[in-house]
Amino acid sequence: MEVRLDFLDLLQPDMSRKILMCLDDISDIVRASAVSRCWQHLVIENGLSKQLCFRSFPHLSRVASIVEVNNSEVNGNKEVACSSSRDSKSAQRDHRVYAYLAHASASFLMRHCISEAIIASSTDNDPEESINNTLDARDLVARRASYWSSKGQFKPDVPETLIYKLVSNLCVVYEVNIRPFQAFFQTGLPIYSAKAVRFRFGHLKHVMDLRSDLVGESHCGSAKETFIWTYTSPEFPMAQENYLQRFKLPEPVLCIGGILQVELLGRVQRQETDALFYICVSHVQVIGRPLSPAFDVEILEPSWDFILKCNHQAKTSNQLSMLENEPRTILPTYLGRRVIELRQIVNMLRGNVVQGEDYAWAEDEDDR
């Protein structure tokens, strides 16, 4: 009988490990693990797929345990496998999950990632100038200008914040795009941009209903008591120009918990009627890869570590659901605005055109 030798066995384990740790692509690590049993053992036992994920997304170090969920029903129940120890089976499980996570973070569909607007630090006229308006890319909705406006301030250095919920508890975010608002109905067509912008990603401190529990500007002011921010971007200068400005993050960011805060730093434009500084935003857009339903997280209190949940069988359904739901989930506020638009169209067809609605702030400028 022919004796077959694995030439890789001739390498010292330390040398093989050093070679494998030079790989920076998960597909290369998976292929290497298929070359020989020796390398497969090194890849799994040394957690190389996990280390690769940690290099790309350092906040994964807060994973307390891993749960694998199997869609195949056994006696009517889903199979669940949990890992928090370092035995052989858990090492294999970690390899599967982290290898899949690295693959998903680079291959799942890119899309718009904002699910809903949560709260703004201030709003001049609510709901006419609500943060919800920033979800719509159109200039006009129901024959009115669509934008969010802060309250006016005497000092130009007073910041504002906008907080959003993303479509998934785990999203790989590449860029955030913002379009400042140009008041085409005011003299000189002023643009109410900020001087600079900064982004924070994180999660809620405690389980709560975002719609009912976060109401009013006082809650946005206490963001430190409400949210945990796991990533803060550098400041990006914002141009005082009316176009969708692209702010690409230095590296892709894994948002754990699905919360985004947009910090608008500094004001550049006074309103002529009251000599106050305002910041106004027409549209906010987040581009990234949602990782649900293949991945989810459960935040643990009070450590703020989290359980990473993985469903390998959700891979195909992820791609299909992203296509079906593009560009974003329809919100109740969006439906309400569509109803208003349809009513106005019906009125126009009947000849009942309401005068004085075009191109106006929610209130007359003199009332600011």
UniProtKB/TrEMBL annotation:
Top-level taxon of the source organism: Eukaryota
Stated name of the protein: F-box protein At4g00755
PANTHER family, per database record: F-BOX DOMAIN CONTAINING PROTEIN, EXPRESSED, F-BOX DOMAIN-CONTAINING PROTEIN
Gene field: LOC103483307
